[in-house]
Write a structure and sequence with these properties.
heterodimer; A: mainly beta; Immunoglobulin-like; 6-stranded mixed beta sheet; 59% strand; globular; B: Immunoglobulin-like; 7-stranded mixed beta sheet; 4-stranded antiparallel beta sheet
Chain lengths: 111, 114
């Protein structure tokens, strides 16, 4: 099956810093989503971005499907950005929609 | 905004007991999923459900697990005889179609088996 690798595994920032999280995948995809898992364990949809670039406030994401990677940018980080960020993909040959998740990046933002 | 809702948010059960986790997917969606996340690990696919039958399942989804859509709105996951290793966060998700469409996740049910 498709492999998803996220980097870095851990990231520690001071409030106000910018960061880039990376997601590499091993095969063509027809869906890519970024999630933020908050301290209560809830998965919050950040972006649905199988290709191209999107922005939502301080967050933006870019997927280059032909080169099999996606980037999540967080600017002017805040302590509430702390948590685990997951990338999840649906392989191009999967018709029923199963998402494969990466291991996640644990982000800690200090005040 | 429509959302996927799951109940209960937290369930504690004794080993060997049956549990049913409930989900109400978004109303016009056609594909339904269950995922599991053991504490500190990544989210893993369990099963997908379309047109009133299982369309795909992982090796985790053994005979102890079953899914059902008993009416037009609910989607349930049953674990027949719980084990300690079933303790995890269980997420329900739904999608309007199975291909390019975005999947929407519920807030999760934290299952603790004691």
């Amino acid at each position: 099956g498709i492999q998803v690798e996220q980097s870095p595994p851990d990231l520690i920032l001071q409030e106000g810093a910018n960061s880039t999280l990376r997601c590499n995948f091993s095969d063509s995809v027809n869906n890519l989503q970024w999630f933020h898992q908050n301290p209560w364990g809830q998965l919050i949809n950040l972006f649905y971005i199988p290709s191209g670039t999107k922005q939502n406030g301080r967050l933006s994401a870019t997927t280059v499907a032909t080169e099999r990677y996606s980037l999540l940018y967080i600017s002017s980080s805040q302590t509430t950005d702390s948590g685990v960020y997951f990338c999840a993909v649906r392989g191009g040959g999967t018709s029923y929609g199963k998402l494969t998740f990466g291991q996640g990046t644990i982000l800690t933002v200090h005040p | 905004e429509p959302e996927v809702t799951q109940t209960p948010s937290h369930q504690v059960t004794q080993m060997g007991q049956e549990v049913i986790l409930r989900c109400v997917p978004i109303s016009n969606h056609l594909y339904f999923y269950w995922y599991r996340q053991i504490l500190g690990q990544k989210v893993e696919f369990l099963v997908s459900f379309y047109n009133n039958e299982i369309s795909e399942k992982s090796e985790i989804f053994d005979d102890q697990f079953s899914v059902e859509r008993p009416d037009g709105s609910n989607f349930t996951l049953k674990i027949r005889s719980t084990k300690l290793e079933d303790s995890a966060m269980y997420f329900c998700a739904s999608s309007p179609t199975g291909g390019f469409a975005e999947a929407f996740f519920g807030q999760g049910t934290r299952l603790t088996v004691v």
